[in-house]
Amino acid sequence: MRVIYDSKTDTLSIILSDAPVVESDEDKPGVILDYDASGNLVSLEILDASRRVGLPTQIEYQVVTAGIQA
Q1: Residue 53 has pLDDT above 60, yes or no
Q2: DSSP secondary structure of 4-69
Q3: Distance between CA 20 and CA 35 in Å, rounded?
Q4: Please, which pLDDT band fits residue 70 given cuts at 50, 70 and 90?
Q5: Fewer C-beta within 10 Å: the chain N or C terminus?
Q6: Residue ranges per domain, the chain?
């Protein structure tokens, strides 16, 4: 998984898989979901991210296992 914030375009992309994108859908205005040939979510893109996300340049990552946060 990769998370990319492009300050030039103010776009936040979350890439879940390297599978080829065959379909894109703007689920809500400014939120684009990309799908592979099997209908699995490949990535999502948030346009105008600085207006939609509190701090697009900051990320927190957590792994939760059996109810215990690591």
Answers
A1: yes
A2: EEETTTTEEEEE---SPP-EEEEEETTEEEEE-TTS-EEEEEETTHHHHSS-TT------EETTEE
A3: 8
A4: low
A5: C
A6: 2-69
Nearest to 1, CA basis, from 67, 61, 64: 61
Residue with tokens 């390297």: 18
Phi, psi dihedral angles at 52 (to 5 degrees): -105, -20
How many C-beta atoms surround the C-beta of residue 15 within 10 A? 15
**Cα dihedral angle (54, 10, 3, 39), rounded to 10 degrees?**
100
Residue 65 pLDDT grade (very low, low, confident, very high; cuts 50, 70, 90) = confident
